[in-house]
Fold DNA primase.
Amino acid sequence: MLKASSSTVTIAASMEAISLTNTLGPAGALAFQNRQIDPQVAVLSGAYTGRAVTGTDGQITVEPDPSGNIVVFPFIDGGRPVGEKYRAPGKKFWQRKGGRKTFWNADCMDDPALEDGHKALIITEGEIDGLTAIDCGFHTTVSVPDGAPPVREGEDPDQLEDAVPDDDSHGKFEFVFNNRHRIKRIKRFILAVDNDPPGRRLAAELVRRLGAARCAFVTYPEGCKDLNDVRMRHGADAVVRVIAEAKPYPVRGVYLLSDYPELDEPKTYSTGWPDLDPYLQLWLGELLVVTGIPGHGKSTWTMNLCVNLARAHGWRVGVASFEIPTVPALRFKLRLAATGTETKQWTRDLVADADVFIQKHFVFIDADPTAETDDDMTLEWLLDRAADAVIRHAIKVLVIDPWNEVEHYRPRNESETQYINRALRQIRKFALRHEVLAIVVAHPTKDLGKGGEARTPTMYDIEGSAAWYNKPDHGVVIDVPDPELNETVVWVKKARFSWSGRKGDVTLQYLPEIEGYQSLNGLAPLWKSARGEQEYQPPRQPRSNAYQGKEY
Ligand SMILES: Nc1ncnc2c1ncn2[C@@H]1O[C@H](COP(=O)(O)OP(=O)(O)OP(=O)(O)O)[C@@H](O)[C@H]1O
C-alpha cells in the first residue's frame, strides 16, 4: 500500500492539510497503473481510496478506506482541502456537496514561473489527464472541476457568440472566478481538453475568460481523445511533444482592453511640403491611395513624395512600378528629384551622388530578368516580395504604381467589388503588420469626363469599387487645373483620423525642369537647389480652390 509521507516533495504548493492517514489502497494504485500513471504521483496529489457509507439520514458519504474501491481526488486550495471528487468502478463520478469551487491542483497556480511566463499553466478536462501531464513532468497542471459543459443539440461548440454568458460568480465557471486573481498574473495557458464537442466548447469558454492572446491549444495524434489516451497509446514522450507543440489559440478578434499592449500615440510625418502639413500627416502602417486624371502627375508626385521621405527620415522605399521601366525611365525621374536640378546642370559627380542616394534609399520590386518564364505579378506575389524587402532592406514605404497593372486574379464567384475590398484589406494588413506606409496609385475610371463633364476625380471614381474611398487611411487626388500655370493641386479627399490631417486642397508650384513640386508658402525643409543650398522663393498665398461638385 502506498502512503503519502510528510517528507515527500509536494505537487501543489502546500499539502500539509492532507490527512496523512489517507492511503491509496491496492484498487486505487491499480486504477492509476492501468492508466500508466505512477501511483506515487497520484498519492502526492492527495488521491486516496475510500468506501461508500450510508448515513442514518440515507445520505451516502465516502470514508477513507485502504481496502475501498472508490478513488478520491481531493481539491486542495490554499493548502486546505475544499472539496472532493469520487470515482467508483464503472466510470461513476460524483462530488462532495458544498465547498469552494476551484481547479484541481489549484495551488500550483502560485508557482512564480507562471508569472514570468517561464512555464505555462496546463488546463485539462479531468484529474486523470492532469495527473498524466504531471507524471510526464508538467507540474503546473490543473484540471477543471466538473469536466466539460455538454453541447446541446444543434449547437456548434466553436460558435458560442449566441450563447448566454454565465455569471461566473456562481455559475459553471465559478472556479475561474474564484481564481481570478491568480489567473490575472499567469502569462501563458495551454488548454489540453478533450478533442470532442464538449471539450471544444469548454476550450472556447475558457479562452473567452482567459483571453485568446494568452492561450495555446494542443493537437492530439490521430485517434487520441485526451492526454491520457496519448500516454497509453504513444508513451510519455508523445505527451511531452503534444504539450511542447501547443499552438496559439486561433479564436481571435474579441479582446478586452487590458489584452492590448500599451502603445504611444501614432507618430506622424510631414510629406516634406509644409503647405500640406495641416492636411496630410503620414504614419507608418497606413494605406495611402493616390489618384488623378492620367498625365496629371500621380506618379511624379508620388516619387517626389518618396524622395522627400527618404531625405527627411532616412527611410528606404520599395517601388513596384509596372508602367515605367526602372532603368532608364524611373531612374531618370528619381535622379531629377534627388538632385533637384535640371538636366542641363547635371555633372558626372552630381549624378553619381544621386545614384548613391537612390541605391541607399530605393529597392525595386520587379520581374526577374533572368527567369525563363514570367512571374505572374499578382498581389500575393508582390506582397511576398515586399515582405522580403522589409526583412532584407527594412523598407518603410511600399509603392504600387499603378494598381491596374497588377495581375488581378479573382475566383469566379467573387465580384470586382469584393475582390478590391479583399485586396485593399490585405495591403492594409501588410502595412500594419510591417509598419510600412503603403501607397497605391490608381487610375480613375474611363467614364470620368464622359459627356463633356470636366471635373476633378474623387476616390469613388477609381475603377471597381467604393472600397477605394472606404479602405484607405488617406485618399489623395492629384490635379492640374490649368497646365499653363505650372501648378498642381493636391486634394486630400480623406484623412481617416483627425490627428492625420483633414480634407482640403493645397496648390503646389510645379517645377517642370526637375518634374518636382514646391510649397508656395515656403520651401520643403530639405529641398535643395543645384548648389545644395536652400533656395529662396518669395512666399505666396495658397490658392483657394473653389470646390465644385460633391465632397468625398
Ligand atoms: N502641373 C503640371 N503641369 C505640367 N506638367 C505636369 C504637371 N504635373 C506633372 N506633369 C508632367 O506630366 C507628365 C505625366 O506625369 P505622370 O506620369 O506622373 O502622370 P500620371 O498621372 O501618373 O499619369 P498616368 O496615369 O498616365 O500614369 C510628366 O512628365 C510630369 O512631369
Notes: The pocket of adenosine-5'-triphosphate is lined by residues 292, 294-300, 323, 402, 443, 480, 483, 486-488, 510, 515 (CB under 6 Å). Confidence is low (pLDDT under 50) at residues 1-19, 157-166, 523-552.
